[in-house]
Amino acid sequence: MKSHVRRGAAVPVVLMLGAALLLTGCSESTEEKEAAACESYQAYAEAVARLDTLDQASSVDEIADVRDDVKAAHETLVEDLEAVADDRDDQLVAAWEAFGKAVDDIDGDATVPEAAASLSEEVAAIRAAREQVAADLTC
Asked: Residues 43, 46, 51, 53: is their CA dihedral positive or negative?
């Protein structure tokens, strides 16, 4: 029995589905990025601890291997920390932009208490973002 479906017709559909999966599946949450950074930090700490295993009996190749391990762990850790920092920055920027828009959207006839009440969620978001940045900076 001969199929009436063209073979090339399924390709665009498969490509679109794949692209959709990639776009939705690649976005990590802040918590996932923090977990990845913690795992990277642990791997970095373990690689650095290998430096203590080097002694006078170590070969140049062994020293180079440890250096390569520390370098790879360092690079991964830096990337993961940057991803977390980018999220923090994004949260701060988003909170600020939402606050600015909310201020712009205040009815000109609103009283000060009404205006302040209408901004409470945006102010809370700015505080939360600021507190997270301060915690990350250990200020």
From this structure: negative
User: Is the pLDDT confidence value at 86 over 80?
Assistant: yes
Residue 74 maps to a domain: yes
Q: Does residue 18 register a pLDDT over 70?
A: no
To the nearest whole percent, how much of the chain has pLDDT over 70? Answer: 78
CA distance 5 to 20: 24
Residue 18: CA atoms inside 13 Å, Cβ hemisphere, count?
A: 6
Give domain status of residue 111, yes or no: yes
Residue 102 is assigned to a structural domain of this protein: yes
Domain with 118 in it: 29-137
In a domain? residue 18 = no
Q: How far apart are CA 24 and CA 18, in angstroms?
A: 10
Rg (CA), the chain: 26
Cα–Cα dist 100/27, whole Å: 27
pTM for the model stands at: 0.61
In this structure, the dihedral spanned by the alpha carbons of residues 21, 26, 31 and 33, taken in order and rounded to 10 degrees, is 160
